[in-house]
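Project outcomes to date are best conveyed with an example. Our students and postdoctoral researchers have been running inverse folding experiments weekly, and each run begins with a structure described purely in C-alpha cells. The record below, which covers 267 residues, was selected by the lab manager from last quarter's runs and is presented without edits.
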C-alpha cells in the first residue's frame, strides 16, 4: 500500500500543531489513508495535553517567552527543545490494507512503538517499549502536574538512560493520530514545568538539530516505518489552497493557544 511522508525543519510551533491537526482532518475524509511526518522546532515550545489543567501543569511566571500550546492529543506537558526530532503518524483505519495499522488505539500505539524501536535500532540505539504504565504515573494529581518525561505510560520507548520517546494520541472514529518527541540527546528541562524529573539536561546545553542531521534522521525514520509496515511512502504535495488553510490554522491556534480545539475535516 501507499502512504505519504513530509518533513518540516525548524518550524514555527503553532504551524507544527496546525499541520498535525490538518493531517488528521485530511485523513478523516480519506478511508485507508496514511500520513507520516517528521519535524523540528524553532523556537522551542511547551505543549500540554487536551485534558490537563493548565495551571497545574505549568508555572506561567517562569515561561520567559516560551510559547505554550494545548494539544488536541492527550498526555502531559512537554518542552519541545530545538534539538529534538518530532514525529507524527495519522491513519484512517477504515479500508486500511495494512493489518498492523488497524485495531484498537492500544494496538495501533503498540505497532508504532515497535516501528520506533526499529528506527532507533537503525541509529545504533538499543531501546524497548514500556508495556504497562508505572503505577504512580496514573495518579490524578500526578497526571496534571508531572511533565511527560517524568513518567512512563504504555507503549512509550525507554533505553539505558530512561525514556527516549514520549507520545500522545487522539482517535475520532476510524481516524487516529499519534505524535511524539524523540529525545536522542536526553530531554531538556524547563523552569515552567511544575515537577522536574531526573535525567533532564539543561536547555542551555542543547545543541539545535542541524538541517543536515534533520534530513538524515527523517529519511531513516521514513525508511524504518516503511519497512516495518511494508508500505511505500511518497512525498506529500500541497496545493496553494492547502498552504492558505494551514497558515490560517496556525494563526488561529496562536490566538487561542490554551483552549481546546475542534479538528476540522479537510475535503
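After processing, the design step wrote out the following sequence:
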Amino acid at each position: 500500500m501507499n502512504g505519504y511522508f513530509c518533513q518540516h525543519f525548524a518550524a514555527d510551533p503553532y504551524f507544527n500543531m496546525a499541520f498535525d491537526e490538518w493531517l488528521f482532518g485530511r485523513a478523516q475524509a480519506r478511508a485507508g489513508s496514511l500520513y507520516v511526518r517528521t519535524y523540528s522546532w524553532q523556537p522551542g515550545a511547551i505543549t500540554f495535553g487536551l485534558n490537563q489543567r493548565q495551571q497545574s501543569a505549568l508555572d506561567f511566571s517562569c515561561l520567559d517567552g516560551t510559547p505554550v500550546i494545548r494539544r488536541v492529543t492527550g498526555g502531559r506537558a512537554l518542552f519541545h527543545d530545538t534539538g529534538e526530532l518530532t514525529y507524527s503518524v495519522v491513519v484512517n483505519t477504515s479500508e486500511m490494507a495494512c493489518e498492523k495499522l488497524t485495531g484498537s488505539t492500544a494496538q495501533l500505539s503498540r505497532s508504532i512503538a515497535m516501528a520506533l524501536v526499529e528506527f532507533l535500532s537503525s541509529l545504533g540505539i538499543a531501546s524497548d517499549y514500556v508495556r504497562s504504565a508505572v503505577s504512580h504515573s496514573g495518579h490524578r494529581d500526578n497526571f496534571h502536574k508531572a511533565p511527560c518525561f517524568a513518567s512512563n505510560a504504555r507503549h512509550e520507548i525507554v533505553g539505558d538512560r530512561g525514556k527516549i520517546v514520549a507520545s500522545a494520541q487522539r482517535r475520532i472514529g476510524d481516524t487516529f493520530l499519534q505524535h511524539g518527541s524523540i529525545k536522542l540527546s536526553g530531554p531538556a528541562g524547563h523552569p515552567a514545568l511544575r515537577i522536574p524529573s531526573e535525567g533532564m539536561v539543561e536547555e542551555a546545553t542543547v545543541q539545535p538539530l542541524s538541517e543536515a542531521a534533520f534530513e538524515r534522521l527523517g529519511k531513516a525514520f521514513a525508511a524504518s516505518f516503511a519497512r516495518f509496515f511494508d508500505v511505500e511512502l511518497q512525498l506529500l504535495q500541497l496545493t496553494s489552497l492547502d498552504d492558505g488553510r494551514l497558515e490560517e490554522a496556525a494563526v488561529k491556534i496562536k490566538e487561542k493557544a490554551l483552549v481546546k480545539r475542534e479538528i476540522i475535516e479537510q475535503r
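The chain has a mean pLDDT of 90. The chain has six helices and eleven strands. The training component of this project remains on track.
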